[in-house]
Structure of nitric oxide dioxygenase:
Amino acid sequence: MLSPKSAELVEATLPAVGAAIGEISELFYTRMFDEHPILLRHLFNRGNQANGTQAQALAGSVAVFASGLLEGKQPDAMLRRIAHKHVSVGVTSGQYAVVHKHLMGAIAEVLDVTPEIAAAWSEVYWLMADTLIGLERFLPRGQEDHRVIARFQETDDVVTFVVRPVNGPVPPTKPGQYVSVHVPLPGGIRQIRQYSLSGRTDDALQFSVKRDGEVSNHLHDHAPVGSTVRLSRPAGDVTLQPGDGPVLLASAGIGCTPMIAMLADLAATGSQRKVIAVHGDRDQFSHPFRAELGQLVAKLEDGQAHVFYEEPVGQWPAERTGFVDLSSVPVPAGTTAYLCGPVPFLRAVRAQLLEAGVTDIHYEVFGPDVVVSAG
């Protein structure tokens, strides 16, 4: 909890900080990368820095955390997601002090705050940082080399890589988790990206990569069978939970990768649960795992699939043309929903589920964490 004096100051200045948080975030990253350029070269996603999404994510998480403190609660789901991503890319507890220095410096420069206000926001930061450090302490860390033993072209721009550890067994995984892939790029640069696990066997993992950016392009073009890739331990808290109630797996585009892993697990274990798989894509040819979706649903005792295409090729039902629309999909009470896809999709489907009375909703965001409930 914030101290009473800090709570008073944070509440009074939250509107001003919120209004300027975009400028603060941009300045923060500029200051930090000027002093520590290796962080941009080897840790932070250069694409997300260029398009501003990382700054937006930082802005949203700090504002949400501060607001939660004033209301006497913490955004636990957001903090868990951030902790898992930090561990998967190798963020260390010592780096929080670096972030603190430059974030507080940016706030002071943009808003010209008093020392008392700066101290209050410093308290907010360290409460958030200490919470994340505590969560990260208990998550598995480390990276290991894996050999590419097979690769499959799912669509024109999606490749599935099947990899096996060079040394030791395949690490434990849960359906819905992801791995961070560490890729060396020209100029001595190393970049890290997360890719959801789309399946596993006793001795191999598989992850699927859509060609979109410098790391995915590198993997498509320079990771043939027999090559070696460096992977983090599996991470991610949006995983299929045990139970008997209905399950909704909703995805769009490459967001189908964690959903297909969950669906495969349900089919492999002979689940008796009602399972509703929903997917949206541009057309049949851009839909990864299209055949597997039908095959896995057919193995379930009570499974159904609903697929929406924006621009279907050939004959396609009119009620399944366009964006995903759950008004035409019966979703029973007590359903647990798992979502993955672009943020507009997540927000739209979440709103549809809430309107239908579904509140047990879990979502995975590709890229920097954002507040899906906004907008």
